[in-house]
Amino acid sequence: MMARRSWVNVNEPLAITKQCTLSGVARSGVYAKRSQAAFDAEDDLLLREIDTEYTRHPFYGSRKMVIILRIMGYTINRKHVQRLMRVLGLAGMAPGPSTSRPHPQHKVYPYLLRGLAINRPNQVWSTDITYIRLARGFVYLVAIIDWYSRKVLAWQVSNTLDGSFCVECLESALKMYGAPDIFNTDQGCQFTAAAFIDLLKQHNIKISMDGRGRALDNIFVERLWRSVKYEDVYLKCYVGVIELIRGLTLYFVFYNAERPHQSLGYCTPDKVYQAGIGGGARIVDKFNVGQICSTESGQRCAAA
């Protein structure tokens, strides 16, 4: 039956009804196949739109995303958007991203960074996971960043949300740069799992976790994801994982060693990390206009 169904060609001048009769196949099967193909193509486009909009506004949930997509001209309801956001592992920042679902049996640690002045490298490291879309499918990217210098210390790509790639990323950063005083994560099961927590404890690292509904508790990694996607992933349109890894390798070298950062007085993260001058930040208790304050606003590249 499947072989005969493939004989039906929508591009033929002969009507589909007649082709089905001559081939001995049911029209419903042919129409269902066509509808599914059209559905998949539309969903792929919607996934890209949602990913792009979420990168701009990671605090958007499904309700706001429905409004945005309707403004763009799509006819879509909230249930459809929720399903697509689950595919991407995304949700509004208020309830926490789906890439960061807590495990009910894992311990959650308090947030240690609110009001803390970050005034030297390796004082605070932070990590997070984001979704990276490819021409065929998607993968997940985890990265570890030094808060003082914004330097990307290590990163890993995985096609699943299994926590092992997060542990490997942490092991790599510890091997290359030693241990920080504090390590901040969200409350996702990858970061509350015993393998990840035990590795931090082995190095006597204080554990900090984002508060629920605190969209800016891990702001520097959120900014990193925006830069990675808009400056590399969206421009390159990677087809496969190998191509993506090669591209990200070059991008993170550029990000650390060549790309000037406004928040660092237009220095590079590598220079600020090595010199220990020109970086720093502080998360204030209440998020108003000045949510993130530089602790060394007068010391920039020239001082290094």
What would your notes on this structure say?
The chain is of the alpha/beta class and 304 residues long. It folds into 2 domains: 87 residues, no CATH class; 198 residues, Ribonuclease H-like superfamily/Ribonuclease H (Nucleotidyltransferase, domain 5, 2-Layer Sandwich). The protein is 43% helix and 13% strand. The protein is built from 11 helices and 8 strands. The strands form 2 sheets. The chain has a 5-stranded mixed sheet with strand order 4-3-2-5-6, with helices on both faces. Strands 1-7-8 form a 3-stranded antiparallel sheet, with no helix packed on it. Strand 2 and strand 3 form a beta hairpin. Helix 9 crosses helix 10. The longest helix has 30 residues. The N and C termini lie far apart (73 Å). The C terminus is likely disordered.
